[in-house]
Amino acid sequence: TMAFTAGYWALGALRPRVMAFLGCDMVYPATGDTHFYGSGTPDPLRIDVTLRSLEAKAARLMVLAARQGCAVVNLSRAAHSRLVFPRATPGTLAAARPGTFDAAAALAEEDRLAYRVPSGRYWLEEDRFDPAAIDAVDRLWLAAVRRARS
Hints:
Strand content: 5-15%
Oligomer: single chain
Low-confidence stretches: none
Number of helices: 4
Number of strands: 2
Structural class: mainly alpha
Order of helices and strands: HEHEHH
Largest sheet: 2 strands, parallel
């Protein structure tokens, strides 16, 4: 999830045309290497109410980046990834273009819930967040990406 945080920062500060992720598949098989820990388990510090679906958070980043004219792609060659970004190679980055997504429902629900925490210290306020509401918003972000691909 640090990659997503860096992605949002880059969108605001650098205005990239393409953001490419490598080594960030967030897949934790029972045996063998994981995306960057070598072998191990998911980050135990990320057990919180806001991080319910990595796929949905990836979808949200990709959609919000596209709204700013930025394509988001996955450079990984791994067979499995929790990122929902289109696959790319270093040779295809120059041709990467942002998708077109209808995220009005997800954005409206986020506005309605008003789960924003200006300080960024959401863990101090997480008791006001309803996990079912977060799951519903996550489904809306995933639906926006799926509709664009079909």
